[in-house]
Design goal:
2 copies of one chain form a homodimer. Chain A is α+β, with helices and mostly antiparallel strands. Chain A has 3 domains: 12-90 and 123-285, 2-Layer Sandwich (BirA Bifunctional Protein, domain 2); 300-397, Anticodon-binding domain (Rossmann fold, 3-Layer(aba) Sandwich), CATH 3.40.50.800; 418-488, 2-Layer Sandwich (Translation Initiation Factor IF3), CATH 3.30.110. Chain A is 35% helix and 28% strand. Chain A has 14 helices and 26 strands. Chain A has helices spanning 12-22, 39-58, 72-75, 79-85, 125-135, 180-200, 247-251, 276-285, 310-330, 345-354, 365-370, 391-416, 424-433, 446-456; strands at residues 26-28, 35-37, 62-63, 69-71, 91-94, 97-99, 106-108, 113-120, 144-153, 167-177, 207-210, 222-229, 235-245, 255-257, 263-265, 267-274, 302-306, 335-337, 359-363, 372-377, 383-387, 418-420, 437-441, 459-464, 469-473, 480-488. In chain A, strands 3, 9, 10, 11, 12, 13, 16, 22, 23, 24, 25 and 26 form a 12-stranded mixed β-sheet that branches. A 5-stranded mixed β-sheet of chain A has the order 18-17-19-20-21, with helices on both faces. In chain A, a hairpin with a 5-residue loop joins strand 12 and strand 13. In chain A, helix 2 (39-58) packs across helix 6. The longest helix of chain A is centred in the C-terminal third of the chain and has 26 residues, at 391-416. The interface between A and B is large, with 64 and 64 residues.
Chain lengths: 491, 491
Amino acid sequence: MGKNLTKRSEDYSKWYNELVIKADLAENSGVRGCMVIKPYGYAIWEKMQTELDRMFKETGHENAYFPLFIPKSYLSREADHVEGFAKECAVVTHYRLKNAEDGSGVVVDPEAKLEEELIVRPTSETIIWDTYRKWIQSYRDLPVLVNQWANVVRWEMRTRLFLRTAEFLWQEGHTAHATREEAIAEAEQMMGVYADFAENFMGVPVIRGVKSESERFAGAVETYCIEALMQDGKALQAGTSHFLGQNFAKAFDVKYANKEGQQEYVWATSWGVSTRLMGALVMTHSDDNGLVLPPKLAPIQVVIVPIYKGEDQLDAISDHVAPLVQELRSRGISVKYDNRDTQKPGWKFNEYELKGVPVRLAIGPRDLENGTYEVARRDTMEKEIVKGEEVVDRIEFLLDDIQKNIYSKALNYREEHITKVDSYEEFKELLESKGGFFSAHWDGTVETEDAIKEETKATIRCIPLDAEEGEGVCMYSGKPSKRRVLFAKAY
Amino acid sequence: MGKNLTKRSEDYSKWYNELVIKADLAENSGVRGCMVIKPYGYAIWEKMQTELDRMFKETGHENAYFPLFIPKSYLSREADHVEGFAKECAVVTHYRLKNAEDGSGVVVDPEAKLEEELIVRPTSETIIWDTYRKWIQSYRDLPVLVNQWANVVRWEMRTRLFLRTAEFLWQEGHTAHATREEAIAEAEQMMGVYADFAENFMGVPVIRGVKSESERFAGAVETYCIEALMQDGKALQAGTSHFLGQNFAKAFDVKYANKEGQQEYVWATSWGVSTRLMGALVMTHSDDNGLVLPPKLAPIQVVIVPIYKGEDQLDAISDHVAPLVQELRSRGISVKYDNRDTQKPGWKFNEYELKGVPVRLAIGPRDLENGTYEVARRDTMEKEIVKGEEVVDRIEFLLDDIQKNIYSKALNYREEHITKVDSYEEFKELLESKGGFFSAHWDGTVETEDAIKEETKATIRCIPLDAEEGEGVCMYSGKPSKRRVLFAKAY
């Protein structure tokens, strides 16, 4: 196809890296581990943001903004939290540069050393709970339902565009509640919002579950998650929602007076999704020809390519196409008419396939004569000739059908790749030969989890919420188990 | 009014600080100079963002995202730029913390020292132009019209909520062009977009002009600006748009092949507005009773307060009001029906005055009987009784009228506070007694500008674009001058 894109079957990882760059989604920057999100990639992220933000507001949340920096001492207040995040953070130690005495440029001014170092937020629980202490006095102040859209930094050693970068964009919800039950209901609700978004907008089927203790967020009592499966059989955690108990309220002394006037610690949740979703989107649907985007998140839903010789033909086609463009826009469909004369139609076809535009129309002199369009759908690459008077309805049908089809396809793949295993030998063999999720009994200990991870690189992705209770024996230790959990190798 | 708000006439500065906090716009955080933007303040900023983002896209710009960090060496590439920004930046020197040996918490791990320090972006010209080198090869790649919504950090010693904070939120546009003329046209266009936004959405009249050399952005050839006037007679720079010439293209070696195949340096602009606009909004319109918000940016445009005794009356009012709320929403008006039983009507009246809700409706049992509402407008505090069947139209009229009225009021104030002066004595006297802008002749030298600033604290805010040419003599030096410029004390 002339795209010079490595095939998925040859090297899935290389295919992904190439595709992200060739489709103009993102690229590496001059700063180690930090990416540049290019306009086309950012436009997809903006569409994700718009939908998520609407869903957050519909569930009663408001946006706010908290500082980028966290005083070092804040991080230490919650014991598990600091263990989880201190190891990978960017530390600001000075607040001024000065000219080097040898004229070689600028150097850090040693006199501008901060008394207390500041950490670039890896997540904002600490700075936010330090603030909530001022906001919350009485039960009347609860619940606090706040979300923040922000950048965060975690100093990762091995980075990959979107999947693992030192700086990434995300949203983080932080809520405060009067009761344990309400906080748990909130954490579960937000996992539900994420699952709804992943499935109905991204077209990515997800499994809802809770994390095992060792995979839990640092400082959480329970971590709810949604887990997706990529085309190479590896899982990807697409969003997490944490029930934090009273851990942060105790660390930052956030109490409220209940209706009886007694002081109680507040209950908390936090929940987030990030630009990592872009990686999940690319890896779930795309193929050897490039991106396949769900119509609901595609920046360009329909592209129209004129096929012509000379300016007269182009003018005739442009005149013919103008009312169609207008009609599509009035129906809320984003459409691009690409009449650039610097590129040939074949180049354009290639380009829009690479960029995953869901529906492509082509129109040449013969179509003009016949009153038809050549309509191609990106997901199946099928083409058809459609009459002018039927084309708008057909496009609406296709956008809807592509959205459904890519979800079904991903769901079928996922269903085919959940394998029930009862022996560790079978597990190890199928993990390598087939991949995907493995539903297996586990004795519930960290030791077994660690040993399996050490030997196979597979981790417990989640304990699915809909897991049937059922006694069994752990595939590794032979000890008793109460239910099956899902193992997989993961991003 | 029970708001415990300092009067503007007593202490304007204190009034501002109190109002920002009491109206729940923002507060100081535990991190020096960094603010927390609270949900109500953030909702106003979101409305600003939505309108500006629409205007940027309508003028052909796309959003993207560039790294938070800038390698120290990048900053040094453009000589003026580093002079302007090196003095006030947050410097990341390490990438890990570790447990203190004495168990007292965490300390910076000395082994995790970065080879090259990273600067938290004070503005992104350098990292962006380092990226544009990869994006631009040919005239076909131009123009590049990109905007970024981001947080930036400038280590200010004296900070004030919204007006001057170490971290602030902003947008920064960065464009690349084939010709000098096109870049200048872009810089002027974006100043126009900012002026349009300030006047037609914020209701803040602005003067368009260019900065004198010493007030120019570090690295710019020309800085266009919009200048507003606050109620205390001090000016506030509300937005800037810079023509950067080829300075950054040369510093980062960004060339393109023109149509003749010759290599040329690219021409650049950058332009930005920030959360500082929130300060301008508050200080332009608000009064001793609290915020006055322009209806186009008010998170709540209409509030309805029921006045009742007992649940039966409340239910009757709620039933009566429900279709009105629905009708207003269907017309795109944001409305809040405040039926909380934890607060009295008087408390609510106070609260919504403080928060600047443009239109307030009150309805009690007698109104219910008569089919009327008491309608109050926030800008003039006028009240009237309006019949139920006329209330929707009246609200639409009021929202429109308040938007116009607060603009006119601010414009009148501004016009009354542009004073033409020809002697330095008169200037100094009126600067203290009257304030505002002073239109005066200036000899065009930095020396004179510095001397006036030193002696009076007034600076040249801008050389207005519509300034009439007219020979004169500098009010300070007596040397010849070609046109008047605007002096003022400024935020």
